[in-house]
Amino acid sequence: MTWVNAVIQGVLLGGQYALIACGLSLAFGVMRIVNLAHGDLAVCGAYLGLVLSSALGVPVWVTLPLLLPTAFAVGALLQVTLFARALRHGVLAPVLVTFGLSVMIENLLQEAATSDPRGLNGGSLALASFHITSGITVSWLFMTAFLTACAVLSGLQLLLSRTNWGRQVRAIADDLDTARLVGIRVRPLFATVAGIAVATAALAGVFIGTIGTFDPLAGANTLIFAFEAVVIGGLGSLWGTLAGGVALGVTQVVVGQVNQAYAVLAVHLLFLGFLAVRPTGLFTAPSSRLGALG
Amino acid sequence: MTAPLLDITDLDVCYGDFQALFGVSVSVAPGAATALVGANGAGKTTLLRTIAGARFPTSGTIRYRDADLTTAPPHRRIAQGIALVPEGRRLFPSLTVEENIQVGAAAAASKQWPLDRIYATFPMIAARRAQRASTLSGGEQQAVAIARALAAAPALLLLDEISLGLAPRVVEDLYQTLAEIKFAGATMIIVEQDLQRAMATCDHLVCLLEGRVALNAPVANLTRDQVVAAYFGDTTT
Predict the structure, then answer these.
(1) Which of A54, A58, A152, A165 counts the most CB atoms within 10 A of its CB?
(2) Cα–Cα distance between A263 and A184 in angstroms, integer?
(3) Going from the N-terminus, what domains does chain A have, and what CATH number goes with each?
(4) Contact B104 A179 (CB under 8 A)
(5) Whole-structure pTM value
């Protein structure tokens, strides 16, 4: 029974990883940018949640209608002012620019909020749980995080496959030059994609901050897990990202059941194994970087 | 004489240090079909892509319907009615046939070419509308590429080597369809390797030689020998 429990907890944990990773995956699939500040932006989301929920005196969930649009705007603004310029200067420039952004965010957060670990006010949801059987207890918070990840991924998938916006985004992912030539306005589309990527990161940050604690340097670790989920799932494939996140989560909890000391190491070994054996990931998109969505 | 739809003056286009076009001046009358011929590397594709906005000239102007479009981005040109069928088709492989066409309508000048009219014009792709573009045959892909440009309701349709790599019968069908589209009022610039076909289809002919205009005249005033001479830069004939 403990093993079944470990797998279930692992799957739920994987949902959180997928939620952080989906924005990374989307941004890479569409704009070919690996945003090294993605984890730090998630942490910024957590801090913003902290500021808003303590200022208003409400659980952090209540602040989401304010927090998510703000994060979206920040993402769009970063794209227009920073990433778009970096993308014009080859493959290395965006890596350097986002790395620099990551360093800046971490230091600014330390200046403004000190390096004390913080937690978010999750309201009554934070401590609630339910029993599946006598041996298996599931936290509502973990369940909510997992279901939110599924909802966000399904929503993105629907947006991409059914809407005019999604069609244009997929066309850009296929062939940017031709997309421009047939009249797609790339700049505003990139801005919305970056906005969505940062908004999902901020949402993931809120869950991270509610489930555990966070500090100004938590972004780097967050980024590594997100990056591993994206690579294991297959670059640019959203459902692959969920599968990758779940693979990480299950590995972490099941190995942790045996020996807690090796849990995180096992996750990184799984990632290295994938890189060695199947570097294209579980869900490869042969003809397109967003092909598995079509 | 009516005012030209498109008026290109002294166009220079460079790729870095390499200059592809030298002082090219061409004007296109509304409703006319202009053949753009020349050897490989003469600058035909560069000229079409510059008209479509994929490249910006280093000097010279592109005027269209009395507006200066020299530095306009592609989406503005499409909204004005200039659409390109690029060399090599360049469909979006992961999108379906219908999605490819819908994407083409993103910045459309008007609703003159709705989906049903496009399918009526290209019956062979109507049955394939839900298929991924990458699964189609070459001829079907070319038809989709033209359909995607038509979805933008172009007044000026730029066609870059649509017969490349296709069977003669398929090419015949495509040109038949182009004749219908022209009859419906579209102005065209057609890059075509087959001189015979180019002269049979078009009213006007422009021959480029190493980035310069070597010949620019109504087809009716030209003999095949004159065009061949301009094509190879042979000044003795």
Answers:
(1) A152
(2) 46
(3) 2-113+138-293 (1.10.3470)
(4) no
(5) 0.88
